[in-house]
Specification:
Elements: H1 3-11, H2 14-28, H3 30-43, H4 50-64, H5 80-93, H6 99-113
Length: 116
């Protein structure tokens, strides 16, 4: 495996998803993070078909990519492009977002944001 491939694996891994989601949860906001979590947990289900996992992993890959169309650190608008990509993937794969997925996402949101 080349060094270039190792960098790709580091940037687009489960670990990098959790790192970015946890680190920027409050900056990105509940809406973005909750969508990302629902997609993540839906992709982890064995019964989610490969085509849906491909859509989901593409959207999550965009969310964790180091470079964005709109830099994530830009005030207010930094996560709007991420929200758009995640929303499109959610709409495409909504049939795989079940009660279990929703509960897992809600629990993680509660862990990060507390009770609101």
């Amino acid at each position: 495996m080349s060094n270039k491939d190792k960098g790709y694996e580091k940037d687009y891994s489960e670990e990098s998803f959790w790192e970015k989601a946890g680190k920027y949860a409050k900056i990105a906001g509940k809406e973005v993070i909750e969508l990302a979590l629902k997609l993540y947990f839906a992709a982890r289900k064995p019964e989610t078909p490969a085509w849906a996992k491909t859509v989901i992993y593409g959207a999550l890959g965009y969310f964790i990519v180091p470079l964005d169309a709109i830099p994530d650190m830009a005030p207010v608008v930094g996560y709007l492009d991420d929200l758009g990509v995640l929303t499109a993937a959610f709409a495409t794969c909504a049939m795989y977002i079940d009660e279990d997925v929703n509960n897992k996402a809600k629990q993680k949101i509660k862990d990060w944001f507390g009770d609101d």
